[in-house]
Amino acid sequence: MTSIEPDGKDWTWVLDRRCDECGFDPAGVTRATLADRLAAGAAGWHERLVADDARRRPFPSVWSPTEYAAHVRDMAGVMVGRLTLILTEEDPSFADWDQDAAALAGDYASEGPGEVAAQVGSAVGELAAAYAAVTQEQWDRPGRRSNGSVFTAYTLGVYALHDLEHHVHDVRHHPGAPRS
User: pTM score, two decimals?
Assistant: First the structure.
């Protein structure tokens, strides 16, 4: 399978403004709605992954729906880990996570769509549950990526929600669009 060019963009801007590609608007997310929106984002994956073309890339340089779902599954796990660090340590630094290296190492292209559908639902469910358990006092606790980007428990969740909703949009509406 053709390799996909790594995404080197810094997507932290989605915390401040609307994403023109998928329509995500961070202003529409609140602490009270974050966990429910995360949980709702898991719903569309099963339907998309039972389709006959779930493992087919629309273009050699664009992930298949199964690859997108595997990415979302792994992203959700990384975000649960980062949220846990934020909630249990003082201003932790996050280990780097290279989504493109993870896709290659995990051989996302070879994964079974049915298995990935169950796994993405479970992983996103765990992320939603983790956010449902955040207390009022914990929302503003900080953590940071190695590049210096600072997140709070809340902004990390908004960032994860954009990733989830963006990729749901990718596989539903623009299967040939470049991935983000």
Answer: 0.90
